FAA hydrolase family protein
Amino acid sequence: MKLASLKAGGRDGTLVVVARDLSRAQAVPTIARTLQAALDDWATLAPQLEAVYATLNADPAAGAPFDPAQAASPLPRAYQWVDGSAYVNHVELVRKARGAEMPPSFWTDPLMYQGCSDGFLAPTDPIPAASEAWGVDFEAEIAVVTDDVPMGVSADAARGHIKLLMLVNDVSLRNLIPAELGKGFGFLQSKPASSFSPVAVTPDELGAAWDGGVVHRPLVTHLNGALFGQPDAGVDMTFDFPTLVAHAAKTRPLAAGSVVGSGTVSNKLDGGPGKPVTEGGVGYSCLAELRTVETITTGAPKTPFLRFGDRVRIELFDEAGASVFGAIDQQVVRYDGP
Amino acid sequence: MKLASLKAGGRDGTLVVVARDLSRAQAVPTIARTLQAALDDWATLAPQLEAVYATLNADPAAGAPFDPAQAASPLPRAYQWVDGSAYVNHVELVRKARGAEMPPSFWTDPLMYQGCSDGFLAPTDPIPAASEAWGVDFEAEIAVVTDDVPMGVSADAARGHIKLLMLVNDVSLRNLIPAELGKGFGFLQSKPASSFSPVAVTPDELGAAWDGGVVHRPLVTHLNGALFGQPDAGVDMTFDFPTLVAHAAKTRPLAAGSVVGSGTVSNKLDGGPGKPVTEGGVGYSCLAELRTVETITTGAPKTPFLRFGDRVRIELFDEAGASVFGAIDQQVVRYDGP
């Protein structure tokens, strides 16, 4: 099943069921007006939404055209967004570039931060920044949405609490990060609103590409129209999604609609830092990682962070080449203040 | 105006207007079913709620008895909870005890972390912990609730976006903090669900005790029935609430219903670390601070963290001795797993 939230209809938008090929959508006000409402009562409402989905796929005349530009993030605002760093390769690389050793525990104890969830950018909304000097970067990721997860859940039991998957652009302000992390309390100003793919999908939509813990497909990022990266999300993911959910729930329950991210998707190559697309590699899922590799290779980064007008597109395709989630497609714009 | 959310009525509870003396409450389903709904449309709905409040105060027969034990946190779940450390004295002390210098920038750049907001404990709910070895502690704080705050707001303009105030118990798992902060991404497992006072109040309810930025009243904490601390929230608050709101909104807007905390209220005494209540001082707002003072004074902490069965009560009184927000009153209990 595929679900989206149209911007129209208020702060939480309007829940629609989207056809598998993303061509059409159907509002479902008699079942649930918003995706959060559906998640709040998922066991009861999901089968009703699945019935609409079956009809929509079977009848090409059903529903109305689906325009991703009219879509908000599937959860336009959420009660929780936590983001792991499951591709530990990425963490090791970024630290290496600044000469910091990575503690061995990072391979067994997930890194995860509590992100802001009070308002996500829509998948085709601009990314506002007051200054290019902030070092605006994208991070292409995958995220899951849970129902109610009890405190202390095991990773095995967490698997059953994963109800939806989405793509993420975890917007990061690189030049604000060192000082902010140096204060010791994690990200706040350096991680502004993230955006998510137009469509959230139930795990079965991924077929064999979802093994219950990991998505085995390349995550494709384009920068200003050129391929930037297509690492396989199923490779080098040290902590799978159930492990990340269990980590988040160790000392407290997670409420329905909690969003748990993978961190930047990143693949090693022969144990090394991978290769840019321009050198025949699978590339990267953020500028910081390419800059890190440039630093390791040549002593200094040469690729700049995003500038006003730059455009990032993040998408994931099935084996037949069809877009599973629709595309995150955003342009960085200057913000002149309130 | 005073507002609360009764637990009955679903995940967001039922919004009620509460009489000034906390004796009675009135549901307002034709105005707003939940506090979040009221905050989503505050400019329109607040005057209607104020009218109910006036009637409730004028007519002793209006409304039904208000029982804080039936109250959820005013926002049972919220889209955002960020917590500052505005009483920099507290930060300096805690660092001193572990031999860490505090950077001078901490006096000019607020420390703030993104907390979990997907489910707050009710004001009289137990605090579940799987182990006393987690080092369970309370932190008595004050928080404000905003309407929609634009990105890049000035501290001056942020003042007008503060719509409600509440008390907070920012539950902290002290023994999980060093390792988690050591990973560099801030709190996650070490800051489980917080709880808030039964009642949220508009700033005017504080009269002269609210100067537009700071609450000038003692915040009173009892531990197992004995006075533990009563530092004045208006003393030694280095960053006032508008400054904290502006800090949170530097790189992104804050959605209506965002909760911004003060951090643990803490007073110096003659430039020093204050004194415990048992020695005639105003005491502290968390065990960690008392333990820090014990460490500085005697070389080691002697007060243990909370044990199963321990009870914490946090309250704030007006000059006439009336409780403004009702009491947070919670007992730590053993959690045996899902």
Observations:
- Chain A has a mean pLDDT of 96.
